[in-house]
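Good morning,

Attaching, inline, the backbone tokens for the sequence recovery test we're adding to the shared suite. The designed sequence is right after.
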């Protein structure tokens, strides 16, 4: 059981409430603050419902449920965070609002309180920049649903000190999470390396190489739990498109991350996916799911193109010291359930084969999108491996 410090959670939405559930289950007193009274009432009811279901499923006892609920406080009063030793912010994804809230927090909490942001797409350094003591601010990035997803990316900002990083890591480790450390760069690890899973699949579709159902089938044949189009329909094409656009802009418009017209048009047509009843697939009651063309050769071709692009991203992330090769593989297997870590996959395929494949794409298309990572070139040239 983790040391019972008081944990503050800012924002009682999807992520904040999930994080509060974890912390309360781990025996911490948890103060959940939101500026919206109704959001707090809903979040508190939702947590009760989740705990009740866990009791029904015998995943926790009634006593544990009652103790966890009694440890949580839902309030609009920011001052009640004064005794918290770690505050995890999960409010609206808006830099100005986050900066203001962090400045406000600093006047309330004690000197040794760690301030963390759960941002997915903003710079941790920018969020911290308004703080007097920016060395105590870092990113603690959970995945949705937070209580179920094992991965947490910890992201030190430019000013974060080593002690803050180690203390935060120790707390999240003690919650049984798989922690990886990522550099403060767009998309951190998972949202950066996963881009080609969507982007390259859309490209394959746009070129008419295969249809949506066939691409989904092909990648599932190679162990992905869901196909890219099924997954985008589940996440919401509006959400996925927004992430793609923000990563593209954050990379100073590097062509590798360029969004697609296909996705833009779907969003314009409000084909958000499951939640709107239509995305790449129709979810109408009588809708017939299109049949995949189950051609093994085509499946291999699709897999090679998508996986080599993912590997290229992963190798480039190692090259640019975004994270270690081991953390990248952990992140992609635990955060998004990839069948293999991209670095391990590269080793298995052979780095030379991956480089050859990318080099051919690069020559054929003449697009920067396909440029092989310098590290991949260097390793092949020097006959090196990752292990
Ligand atoms: N939803 C995801 O899949 C996901 C995954 C990882 C990270 N994130 C990040 O987590 C954060 C929260 O996302 P979410 O999906 O839980 O959002 P959400 O909209 O479900 O919840 C946000 C909550 O913050 C509250 N809020 C807004 N401004 C506030 C303020 N100034 N002070 C106090 N409370 C305020 C809102 O009332 C709302 O209850 C964002 O930074 C997001 O990028 C989201």
């Amino acid at each position: 059981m983790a040391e019972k410090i008081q944990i503050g959670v800012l924002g009682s939405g999807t992520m904040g409430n999930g994080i509060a559930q974890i912390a309360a289950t781990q025996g911490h007193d948890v103060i959940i603050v939101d500026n919206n009274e109704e959001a707090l009432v809903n979040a508190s009811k939702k947590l009760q419902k989740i705990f009740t279901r866990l009791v029904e499923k015998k995943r926790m006892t009634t006593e544990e449920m009652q103790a966890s609920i009694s440890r949580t406080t839902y309030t609009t009063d920011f001052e009640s965070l004064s005794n918290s030793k770690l505050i995890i912010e999960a409010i609206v994804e808006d830099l100005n609002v986050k900066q203001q809230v962090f400045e406000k927090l600093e006047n309330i909490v004690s000197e040794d309180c760690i301030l963390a942001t759960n941002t997915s797409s903003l710079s941790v350094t920018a969020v911290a920049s308004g703080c007097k003591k920016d060395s105590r601010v870092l990113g603690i990035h959970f995945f949705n649903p937070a209580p179920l997803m094992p991965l947490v990316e910890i992201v030190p900002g430019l000013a974060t000190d080593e002690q803050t990083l180690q203390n935060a890591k120790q707390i999240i480790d003690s919650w049984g999470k798989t922690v990886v450390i990522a550099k403060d760069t767009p998309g951190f690890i998972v949202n950066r390396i996963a881009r080609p899973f969507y982007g390259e699949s859309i490209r394959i579709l746009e070129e008419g190489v295969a249809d949506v159902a066939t691409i989904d089938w092909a990648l599932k044949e190679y162990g992905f739990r869901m196909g890219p189009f099924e997954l985008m329909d589940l996440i919401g094409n509006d959400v996925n498109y927004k992430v793609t656009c923000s990563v593209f802009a954050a990379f100073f418009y590097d062509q590798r991350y360029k969004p697609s017209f296909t996705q833009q048009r779907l969003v314009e047509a409000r084909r958000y996916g499951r939640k709107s009843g239509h995305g790449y697939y129709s979810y109408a009651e009588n809708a017939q799911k299109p049949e995949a063309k189950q051609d093994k050769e085509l499946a291999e071709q699709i897999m090679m193109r998508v996986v080599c692009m993912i590997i290229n991203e992963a190798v480039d992330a190692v090259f640019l010291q975004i994270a270690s090769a081991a953390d990248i593989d952990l992140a992609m297997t635990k955060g998004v359930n990839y069948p293999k870590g991209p670095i391990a996959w590269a080793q298995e395929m052979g780095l030379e084969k991956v480089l050859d494949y990318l080099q051919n794409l690069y020559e054929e298309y003449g697009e920067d999108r396909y440029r092989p990572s310098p590290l991949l070139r260097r390793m092949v040239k020097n006959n090196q491996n990752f292990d």
